[in-house]
Write a structure and sequence with these properties.
The protein contains five helices and no strands. The protein has helices at 3-26, 54-70, 75-98, 113-123, 131-154. Helix 2 packs antiparallel against helix 3 (75-98). It is globular and about 45 Å long. The mean pLDDT is 89. The chain crosses the membrane at residues 57-87, 134-153. Keywords: Membrane, Transmembrane, Transmembrane helix. InterPro entries: CarS.
């Protein structure tokens, strides 16, 4: 297992999932339009919800692409991590809406696993990743995101402590 690679991938996962939160807090860009355009699913509930915005998606893609280059992993890996994390986040939101969970509600596991596994499995198609590396980066993200979310709440960057 390449521990340095696991650290780099974990860092990119944090960046991919944190960039939308930071963009919401600090950006003046008016791209805060919902990705789903306000569409509703067959059950009458929102497809993803108003908190999943184009601004956040773009922030994640740009941040991970730039940071991956700085880490020596290349733009393609960064873009893949960013896109995969956003796909995982949209999947989580879709499932939570079907379960009638409120927007931005906490769902332990569902909030972390898709946002880590989707980008890592996609990245494994671009570069060799051992199952243990995928597991280690996923675990680091899942546990680390809980602490980081609380810290961002305490610093008044996040509106919710999760």
């Amino acid at each position: 297992m390449d521990a340095v690679l696991v650290i780099k991938l974990s860092l990119l996962l944090f960046i991919a999932n944190g960039a939308p939160v930071l963009a919401k807090r600090f950006s003046r860009f008016s791209g805060a339009r919902p990705v789903d355009g306000g569409a509703r699913f067959f059950d009458g509930r929102p497809l993803f919800g108003a908190s999943k915005t184009w601004r956040g998606l773009l922030a994640s893609l740009v941040a991970t692409t730039l940071c991956a280059q700085a880490l020596g992993l290349g733009a393609a890996i960064g873009a893949t991590i960013g896109a995969g994390a956003m796909v995982g986040d949209l999947f989580s939101s879709f499932v939570k809406r079907r379960l009638a969970r409120p927007v931005s509600s906490r769902a332990l596991g569902l909030d972390q696993l898709p946002e880590a596994l989707a980008p890592l499995l996609a990245t494994a198609r671009l570069m060799p990743l051992a199952p243990l590396e995928i597991f280690a980066a996923t675990a680091a993200f899942c546990f680390g995101s809980l602490a980081l979310s609380r810290l961002m709440f305490d610093l008044r960057v996040r509106e919710q402590p999760f």
